Amino acid sequence: MTQLLVAAGGGGDVIGTTLVHGAISGDEPAVVLSYSWERLVVDPIPGPRSGWDFTGLRPLTPHVSQITADSAPIAPAGSTLPRLAGDLPITLGLLDPYDGVRGLARQIAEAAERYAVDEVKVVDIGGDVFARGDEPTLLSPLPDAMVMAACATAGVNAVLYLAGPGLDCEIPERDLAADLGDDSFALTEQDTRRVDHVFDWHPSEASALLAAAARGLRGGCVVRDTGLAVELSDVSARVYRISTERVLSRNRLARALYLSGNADLAGAERTSLEVCGFSELQRERDRALLHGAGSPDGSVEHALRGVDSWLERLREEHRDAQYVTFRAAAEGLGLTGSAAQRLRTRLIRERPRQYAPPLLALTP
Question: 298-312 pLDDT, tens per residue?
Fold first, then answer.
């Protein structure tokens, strides 16, 4: 029987969603619905992409398009979804949020009807979908909240699978732990095998941290932007099953979106401003204007010459950390895009004792 899952946050959440699906359902076929809503290093255009931004899409339902390995974003837009569609054992459908909560509800309902599923599994990596909305560390609540509001609007039997509390660097594990409940299971190293190869090229950090925790890595891991180390614990490898009702009772933004039934993305953004006091869409627009459309690749050879001194500074700044993500290493050394991927390949080849898949150990 085909399973229907929704990667609530878009971007790299497709990887974590595939990992969770395998742990729950093994080799059963899966359809994963996801936004193409990625960071500016991948997609220089702020906000999510719609079907109009791709070539090579196929119809999945009347209002949902399937992304395949032959699909491609139309420049200057960028997306990792076509390559994920080719690399992961799933059918990948594009969620388009431009018609707001009601539009998303229609897309999810159509997919649920087509595949005659008993349960829609909404997967979030890290837990910002379970945020109240007033946390000072909250950065990107809108995509996840729109998905939960849409599931409630659609009237489908949707259940949240919250994987790796705290791994998205938005809501710390300790702030979520008391309300997660006891309905959970642990991911294992075997569960990661269907996704391990994707980290050779995909820049996701949250899904990489989830895979690392499932493989048994423990301790602090430095990630980009935050200046803090994320702690990999036994809880980091767990997946919590939470009802839609519990999510809406805690997540004020999701509840407000559900009650307002926004007809477009602009209306959802206004609701986010009212509830959370900020708009991640506006932050993306501001960053795009500040930094321009993308960052130039630096020299991999130059970065490799400076890696030892950079790691030493990192160890001084984060004395309790044992790991760093490859994305944080690349950006810390001034590399993005294809140069970041080449740096990863060289580090794994030249420093095999420091490779702790899918992370880099700070010391051999």
Answer: 689 999 999 999 999
